[in-house]
Design goal:
The structure is a single chain. By secondary structure, the protein is of the alpha/beta class. The chain starts with a strand and ends with a helix. The protein has a 5-stranded mixed beta sheet. Its cofactor is [4Fe-4S] cluster. It holds the Pfam family BcrAD_BadFG. Its EC number is 3.-.-.-.
């Protein structure tokens, strides 16, 4: 008797056959190249040649590509995690943890025992390829190496270069930089292995315990470089790390073991018949967008596009210009005559060795033309332009944007837009009259580039030359989504498992690439009337046609499209050389000089950064000498966040109190290494860097670490209701205390809550209390504080004076640049990416936001609820720079920053009509791409004329701004006509609120549930990592607007706002911006503060009862919710909407639920827009309920009660007593309904206990109702089996809560699964949910 386990993944099929004693008798590991059914059939026939069919009694399947067999009920599906655990334990009885790294997934499983697995902890990678085998494959492919040779290379490595492991694009950038420094391939590959492992530790393992011994499984477990890195990074000895004999087959083994144990019978003959008859069952669902066939949009666009000018063989002394474009995947050379005609070109693979590629290209040109060429000028462009330029004696070195634009305009001066897609880079360029006026480059993901297509073609066994033609044969392009490699690959696997044809997948891939490009690179930038599609990807007709399907027939493929960068470099060389003699060193050059001096951008020396930066740094460090008196205790201050501004104050404060003060160094290579080692979760980069600075101070043996929380700030001119620090500034000390384990290291954290808005009295009390805790009396602390405050005032005043003086000295036609970002983004040499130094080296003056009178510039009319003071400063700076003829803005944002996802839109709105450069900073260790952007921006400004008169005082330009009040209504009473008001979809709350409004005589309706088409619309408005809830509301609103008839246009939208500090409090203002941009000025926006709803004397009761009623409906069985909704609507219509009738309905709901049996009970909590809109959570909770489990929704009435309670604690106005009484009445309502629902109640046992828990864990935190969300998780529900949190991907509050939750004593808590959503369905989330539900 045998049992068979089958594991089908994206690239491979694994089989394991065991006997009755669990002994492995047969294994197979087969690459299916997209032919899942055929390869599986062959594998089974092969098995039958050695074993009798009838002897194989049991079987089960696992893996992302296997569900089609489970759906056909031929085989039972086993969750991947379950299969992995059982497979690992069948070969190694005593294991502590499991590391699984495969092609698309990375898992860490720990805290399990053979006898009891209920406490199991499971972590799975997000939807990014970093940390998976796919990440390695992408980089290996670029180097033109075979994956199976990886181990051989790493065995010979001598060093470990630092490579960013967070993303393929970053890794590629770093690798190029290292190659240009002469780092060998062996070392690069070992560096990649370490990058993957460090990312795996930070992003997957996080703070989970490392229980030994560890079993390492998955396809990557064959890689000796990864094994070496894992042992080193995790600190494992030989006996603590186990790699099974066939690590790639562990999941299949587990499936076989479970099938035998649970007697899962199989009829292999029937299975074979099923595989034989399986057809493509992929269908379009109602909520999906059908993609058009590609063939009708054109054929053969790339043919006959590389026809060189013929040259008479006898002609000598050819006067030519040479352009060389050195990219990450290809190196291109163009030889051009004086008439701009191309006489020869070379398109070569870079293969990780740009010097060799250029040498080969020059050699080929020499062989073709001999000594007949007289070189008049040479230009280089691309990522390797400086190294190669120096090596060959280039006359000009230009950025890729300028070069690509020059080629396009030379070919056709009517072109106004360029789409350029290369191997791992993509660019958008906007032209007006032949001049670059705007541009963008891909930032984070490689999924919109040529290398992505090549990778998928290899895995699907499609020759890359046939790919484009194959896509034209498809009648049904499959919507594979967009975003990351891993995410799209998971969708491909799911499609293959349903029997989808390869050509349908290939055509779907073309759409994925194009959508990624249009949404992530082009974004909302203007697309003109004539588009050139340039770059090697233009060979692919499928991609060309996908573009035309989405942007129309105005896209053309120009001549020499694959080498336009090199062509542009040659033309620029010709234009700039004039009569000068070329410096070209000839077709044979000395490669020995190419090992250029290493230039790390992380440590620019201050003395080279220009006078302004020097002066500011001196003022910042005034009186600081880093000397340590051994008789005194030492306070360490990390040079991070707002301490880049406040250090002058606290340096003096602590010194006056008699302490040594030690400031961490400027961010450097070691800081980044330490940050990667200690940071957890995907916070913004500045927050990640805190870990490195703190680690440095820990290593220097400080006694105290000073890292205050910044709750509120002061901005003298601010008119907003609140002035908050961002979510991370409020939570940073708690996060650092959690991740750095300061208590265990004997270091005391000094983390006073700074709340400047609370006034001088509060600040004095807080800092005097700090002095008291340090053993100082009130007088000592008071004097120290006064001196500190004076030092800060002096610092700020002198910095602004420096800026004024610099502007006054500007020449009449001189351009200067203003770095606009937060203080730490300006002064930190990593966060400013070396931009100030680069500009100064180019001969330009560089100012900062601190040098402008932004703190006295009022933007409250345009942004009445801008509750981030740094946001007010940034927008003030934008308005001043817009007015100043000599100043140009460089706006620096941070990847993963919630406020920046909003401010980026506002900044663009303010700068409309004036060029500016926006750069998003993340974990680049090389500034190649950033400096390309800077050079391109500077070059694009060379045609901009500056007024020929002396610049005036900066305040003059501030005063010139015309401020217009934004059109947003704060209540329904402000509506002047009887227009229909649409409410966002939150079931069933929106429907109940609609009925209340209708009862008041206000015409109202609810927007339909979000769907795929509305999300597609919403994504067209996004430009960075906006929260999914924002994307959805934008899409829902504009889908409604686009579908209106002329007589229906008199409408309004109800989008409530909050006082901050999360990004969602800005949704109304951002939506107003987008409505205006699209010409919907007449559409009204009603955006009351949710905090103010409690003030509504006539309506507060009804509003609150509707929330309570909605919670009751959500508590009911899913099949009965609409019934109760209709019953409550009748109460409203009949003027009987009161607490007593609701109590009677609650009792009915309870008795009905008690009759329903449920397997498991799960509490769900999170962002309301995600919780109460099923599409927004991928119908996750619906599906869990379909499996006869009980979902207990966190009540929205309780959520709002908590917000109002916090609000009243901060606001003591004349109505406070009345409002407290009102809130107490609402608390009684909750109590009454909770009693009716008895043990099925979703409410906390005591609301005061919730407040107490929140005060203990997060006393000073606003935004996203984070205090409530954490307190609810910790509130100790007894009748649940687990908890799921749900929020938009990148929501800062969710990231903070997840991280802080890891510090809770989990012995007394239920298991928690954290889920984030962005509108893309993915297999990893399904695996997480299945595993969670299986083990709780």
């Amino acid at each position: 008797m045998y049992s068979l386990g089958i594991d089908i993944g994206y690239t491979s099929i694994k089989l394991v056959l065991i006997n009755s004693n669990d002994e492995i008798k047969h294994t197979a590991y087969l690459l299916h190249k997209g032919r899942i059914q055929e390869v599986l059939k062959e594998a089974i026939y092969n098995l039958m040649s050695s074993y009798v069919l009838e002897d194989i009694k049991f079987a089960a399947i696992t893996g992302t590509g296997s569900k089609f067999l489970a759906e056909d009920q031929e085989l039972q599906f086993i969750n991947e995690v379950t299969a992995i655990v059982e497979g690992s334990m069948s070969t190694e009885k005593k294991i502590g943890s499991i590391i699984e790294i495969g092609g698309q997934s990375a898992k860490y499983i720990t805290e399990f025992r053979e006898s009891n697995k209920s406490g199991i902890k499971i972590a799975i990678n997000s939807d990014c390829s970093a940390g998976t085998g796919s990440f390695l494959e992408e980089q290996i492919s670029r180097l033109d190496l075979k994956l199976e040779d990886y181990s051989v290379f790493t065995e010979k490595a001598q060093s470990i270069p630092r490579i960013a492991g967070r993303c393929s694009v970053f890794a590629k950038t770093d690798m190029i930089h290292h190659q240009q420094e002469g780092v060998c391939v062996e070392d690069l590959l070992l560096g990649l292995a370490y990058a993957l492992v460090k990312n795996y530790k930070a992003a997957v393992i996080k703070k989970l315990p490392i229980k030994k011994p560890i079993v390492f499984i998955g396809g990557v477990a064959y890689n000796l470089g990864i094994i070496r890195a894992l042992k080193d990074v995790l600190g494992l000895d030989e006996g603590e790390f186990i790699v099974p004999q066939t690590p790639g087959n562990t999941g299949a083994l587990g499936a076989a073991v479970i099938a035998k144990k649970d007697k899962m019978k199989i009829d292999l003959q029937k299975l074979l018949e099923c595989l034989e008859n399986k057809k493509d069952s992929h269908e379009v669902k109602d909520d999906e967008t059908r993609l058009p066939e590609l063939k009708p949009f054109g054929e053969n666009d790339s043919e006959n596009k590389h026809l060189c000018k013929s040259i008479d063989n006898g002609k000598t002394n050819l006067e030519c210009y040479l352009g060389i474009d050195i990219g990450s995947t290809s190196t291109n050379l163009v030889l051009m005559n004086k008439e701009n005609e191309i006489i020869a070109y070379k398109y070569l693979k870079t293969l990780g060795n740009p010097v060799e590629a250029v040498r080969k290209g020059l050699k080929d040109l020499k062989n073709e033309f001999g000594d007949r060429i007289k070189m008049m000028g040479v230009g280089t462009t691309g990522s390797g332009r400086y190294m190669i330029g120096k090596l060959i004696g280039a006359d000009i070195i230009k950025d890729e944007i300028t070069a690509q634009a020059k080629a396009a305009v030379t070919i056709d001066d009517r072109v106004d837009t360029i789409f350029e897609i290369g191997g791992q880079d993509s660019k958008y360029i906007r032209l007006e009259k032949g001049v670059v006026t705007d541009f963008e480059m891909n930032k984070i993901c490689a999924a919109g580039t040529g290398s992505f297509i090549e990778e998928q073609a290899k895995k699907l066994n499609i020759p890359i030359g046939d790919f484009g033609e194959m896509t034209l044969n498809s009648h049904y392009p499959i919507n594979l989504g967009e975003r990351c490699t891993v995410f799209i690959e998971a969708n491909i696997a799911a499609s293959l498992s349903k029997g989808a044809k390869i050509d349908h997948i290939a055509s779907g891939l073309c759409y994925s690439i194009v959508k990624n490009y249009l949404n992530k690179v082009v974004g909302q930038k203007k697309i003109g009337n004539k588009i050139f599609f340039q770059g090697g990807v233009a060979y692919n007709q499928g991609v060309i046609n996908a573009f035309r399907a989405l942007v129309g027939d105005k896209l053309f493929v120009p001549p020499f499209f694959s080498v336009t960068g090199a062509y542009g470099a040659a033309i620029l060389a010709k234009e700039e050389m004039l009569e000068e003699k070329s410096q070209f060193k000839g077709f044979d050059f000395d490669t020995k000089v190419h090992l250029i001096e290493k230039q790390k951008h992380h440590q620019p020396k201050a003395e080279g950064e220009g006078k302004i930066y020097n002066e500011i740094e001196k003022l910042y460090l005034k009186g600081y000498d880093a000397s340590i008196d051994p008789k005194k205790e030492t306070v360490g201050i990390p040079r991070v966040l707002f301490l880049h501004k406040l250090f002058p104050m606290f340096h003096v404060f602590f010194k006056e109190l008699g302490f040594n003060v030690l400031l961490s160094d400027l961010t450097k290579e070691e800081t980044i290494r330490l940050s990667q080692e200690h940071s957890l979760d995907e916070t913004c980069y500045p927050v990640k860097l805190i870990h490195g600075h703190v680690a440095e101070l820990i290593n220097k043996k400080v006694d105290y670490l000073f890292l205050p929380a910044l709750y509120t700030m002061t901005h003298p001119i601010s008119k907003t209701r609140q002035d908050y620090g961002c979510a991370y500034m409020q939570a940073a000390p708690a996060m650092i205390h959690q991740t750095m384990e300061l208590d265990k290291k004997g270091i005391k954290l000094l983390s006073p809550v700074l709340s400047f808005k609370f006034g001088k009295k509060y600040m004095m009390k807080t800092l005097l209390e700090l002095g008291k805790n340090l053993g100082k009396n009130t007088i000592q602390s008071m004097l120290a504080l006064q001196k500190g405050m004076q030092a800060l005032k002096t610092f700020e005043k002198k910095v602004e004076m420096i800026g004024q003086e610099a502007v006054e000295k500007l020449g009449t036609d001189e351009k200067a640049f203003v770095i606009i970002t937060r203080a730490y983004g300006v002064t930190d040499p990593v966060l400013n990416m070396g931009i100030p130094k680069k500009l100064m080296n180019m001969g330009y003056k560089v100012l900062t936001l601190s040098n402008l009178p932004a703190h006295t510039h009022d933007t409250s009319k345009e942004y009445p609820n801008m509750y981030w003071p740094f946001g007010q400063h940034i927008l003030s700076g934008a308005q001043i720079v817009k007015q100043h003829p000599n100043l140009y803005a460089i706006y620096i944002t941070n990847h993963g920053c919630g406020p920046d996802t909003i401010l980026s839109h506002y900044f663009r709105e303010e700068m409309k009509g004036k060029p500016y450069l926006s750069i998003e900073v993340d974990e680049h260790s090389s500034s190649v791409g950033v400096l390309t952007r800077v050079e391109a921006f500077v070059n694009s400004l060379k045609t901009k004329e500056v007024q020929m008169k002396k610049a005036e005082d900066l305040k003059t330009y501030s005063n010139r701004v015309i401020h217009k009040e934004v059109n947003i209504k704060n209540s329904f009473n402000e509506l002047k006509d009887k227009r229909i008001v649409y409410l966002p979809y939150l079931y069933p709350y929106s429907t109940l609120l609609k009925e209340l409004l209708m009862k008041k005589g206000i015409r109202a309706d609810v927007l339909p549930m979000t769907n795929a088409s509305s999300v597609d619309i919403g994504r067209k408005f996004t430009i960075t990592k906006e929260y999914f809830s924002l994307t959805a509301i934008l899409g829902d609103v504009f889908k409604k607007l686009y579908g209106l008839k002329k007589d229906e246009e008199n409408i309004a939208f109800f989008i409530p706002k909050s006082e901050g500090t999360e990004a969602d409090g800005q949704y109304d203002r951002l939506l107003r911006t987008k409505l205006n941009e699209k010409g919907f000025h007449h559409v009204e926006m009603i955006a009351p503060f949710i905090e103010d709803l409690l003030y509504e004397d006539e309506d507060a009761e009804g509003i609150y009862l509707s929330l309570l009623a909605g919670d009751m409906i959500r508590t009911a069985h899913k099949n009965h919710r609409d019934k109760y909704l209709n019953e409550i609507i009748e109460l409203i219509k009949n003027n009987d909407f009161k607490i007593n009738p609701l109590k009677e309905i609650a009792k009915k709901i309870y008795h009905e639920i008690r009759l329903e049996k449920s397997k498991k009970r799960v509490l769900v909590i999170g962002e309301p827009m995600v919780l109460f809109n099923d599409f927004m959570n991928n119908f996750t909770f619906n599906h869990i309920e379909d499996e006869e489990n009980r979902i207990i929704y966190s009540p929205l009435s309780e959520y709002m009660w908590f917000i109002w309670k916090d609000f009243l604690m901060k606001n003591l106005d004349k109505k406070a007593q009345i409002l407290r009484q009102r809130l107490s009445r609402f608390e009684y309502y909750i109590h009454d309904i909770s009693e009716c629902l008895a043990d099925e109640s979703p409410f906390a046992k005591g609301l005061s206990d919730l407040i107490a828990t929140a005060d203990k864990r997060m006393k000073y935190y606003t935004g996203g109702n984070g205090r409530y969300r954490q307190a609810k998780i910790l509130s100790g529900f007894n009748n649940i089996d687990g908890i799921i949190t749900a929020a938009s991907m990148y929501e800062n509050t969710n990231t903070i809560l997840n991280l802080l939750y890891k510090g809770v004593d989990e012995k007394h808590l239920k298991p928690v699964l954290h889920l984030t959503f962005d509108g893309n369905k993915n297999e990893n989330d399904k695996t997480k949910i299945q595993s969670f539900m299986y083990y709780i």
